[in-house]
Amino acid sequence: GRQESKCPYPTPAKPVKENQIGDPVKWVQWHLARKGYMKESEIDGVFALRLFCIVCGFQRKNGLDVDGVVGAITRAALEK
């Protein structure tokens, strides 16, 4: 069977949003890649416009407020 991988990045303590860089952004990208919203090779820790659009698409698809910010509610949806 497929190996369940665990996220190698720490769960962000604060909302993750545009223009941030680092592990919190990688956490978001890792979960989006796991769900097929982006490629694993795109995990670069940079919250640019493309990631903003991907987050908005994820929020729209999951009935969340579409603001492009990964706060507690979007984070919980990503972890599912």
Describe this protein's structure.
This protein has 80 residues and is mainly alpha-helical. The chain contains three helices and no strands. The chain has helices at 23-34, 49-61, 72-79. The longest helix is centred in the last third of the chain and has 13 residues, at 49-61. It is globular and about 25 Å long. The mean pLDDT is 95.
Tell me the distance between the termini: 19 Å
- Low-confidence runs: none
* Shape, principal axes of CA atoms: globular
Largest sheet: none
Helix content: 40-55%
Query: Mind telling me the C-alpha Rg?
Result: 12 Å
Tally of DSSP helical segments: 3
Order of helices and strands: HHH
* Structural class based on helices, strands and sheet pairing: mainly alpha
β-sheet strand percentage: under 5%
Nutshell version of this structure?
The chain contains three helices and no strands.
Features:
mainly alpha, 80 residues, globular, 3 helices
Topology:
Elements: H1 23-34, H2 49-61, H3 72-79
